[in-house]
Hydroxysteroid 17-beta dehydrogenase 2 (Stegastes partitus), 398 residues
Amino acid sequence: MEVWTGVSQVSVVLYVCTLLWKRQQILDVLHRCDLTCAFLIGPLIGPLVAALCCTESPDSYSGAVCGGCCCSVGLICIIARKQKLLPVQNRAVLVTGCDSGFGQALVQQLSRMGLKVFAGVLDVNGVGAQRLRELRRENLQLLQLDITDAAQVEAALQHVQTQVSDSGLWGLVNNAGVLQCPVDAELQPLAAFRRCMDVNFLSAVHMCQLFLPLLRRAAGRIVNVSSLAAEVPMPMFGAYGASKAALKVVSEVMRQELAPWGVRVSVIQPAGFRTSTSDRFTDSVRRHAAQLLATVSAEARADYGDSYISSLSGGLAIMSRQAAADLSPVVDDMCDALLSANPRALYAPGQMGWLLPFLHRTCSTTVFDAIISHLPKYTNQQPEVQRLLWTVGSLFKL
C-alpha cells in the first residue's frame, strides 16, 4: 500500500507540474475556444474520476489515481502540443473575399509569413483593396474576383497558372460569402435563398473544380469557410445556414475523394465574429426593409405586423455589435489548416464554436430549443399574432 501511495503522490505531482509546464499552450487553446476545449475537461477531472471509480481498497484507489494522472498528463501533452508548420518557401495561396474581415486579415498574415498570396477582392479599387496595397509587399497580389462572375474567375485562373507554373497552387481559401439580414424563413424572399446558395455554396464549389488541377500538382490544401449556422439550426438564419451546411457537406465529401491525391480539405466553422463594421449596413438595411414589405404575402404581413417586419432589417447591425472583434482565432486556424503537417478536418473557433454543436447533438429537441430561445435576439419586436396571444393570455391569468 505504501508503494502505491508513493506512486500516486508522484503522479499527482507530475500532473500538476505538467499543467504548469504547458500552461501557456493550454491558455492559448482556451483563448481560441475551439473544439479542443471539450477535451480539456478530461485531463482536468481525470484523476478525480479515476479515484471515484475504484475505491475497493487503498491499493486500488492509489492505482486509480496514478492511472488517471498518467492519462491526464498524456492528454495534456497531446492537446497542448505545438503543431509543426510546413516551410512557406515556394508555396502560393489564393484567398477569396479579401475586401474585409477574415480574408483581409488572413492575407496580411500569410504575406507577412512569406507565402506568395493572391488576394481576390470584389472591388479592386475599393477601400479594402487600397488597404492591402498600402502594405507594399511584393509577395501579395490583388485580383479582381467576383466569384459569381465566370469571366473574372477564369481570368484569375489564367493569372495564377502563369504565376505558379509547374509548382502548382498550394492553397485555396474559399472565404468569400454573403450574409443576408436575419429574417424568419417564411418572410425571407426566395431571391435571398438563391443569392446565399449562389455565393456561399455553388461559387465555392466552382472555384474548387477550376483550381483543383493546380492544387493536385502541389498536393495542396482547400480551406472552406463555413459557419456555426451550418451545424446548429438557428432561427432567422435559414438561407445562410442552408448554404453553409451545403458547403460543409461537399467539403467533407471532397476530403475523402481527394485524399488519394494528397489534397487535404478543411472546414473553418467560425462562431460570432465581426467581419464588417455596422455602418456598412445602413444602405442595405433600408433596401432590405423595403424589399421585405414589398414581397411578403398579405396574410403573413397581417400575422407578423409591419413593425416586426421592419425591425428585422436592423438585425445585422445588432449582430455586429454582439460579435467578437478579434479575428485572430479564425486567422490562426486558417493558417493551421494551410500549413500544419497534420491539419484538422474541422476547426470551430469562437466562444460557442464547440458548445452549441455539443448541446445540439446531446440534448433533447425540447431542451435544445429552450436554450436557443434564450440566446440574444436580433429584434426587440414580436410578431403581431404572438403579441396578441401573449396579451390575451396575460389577461386570463389576471
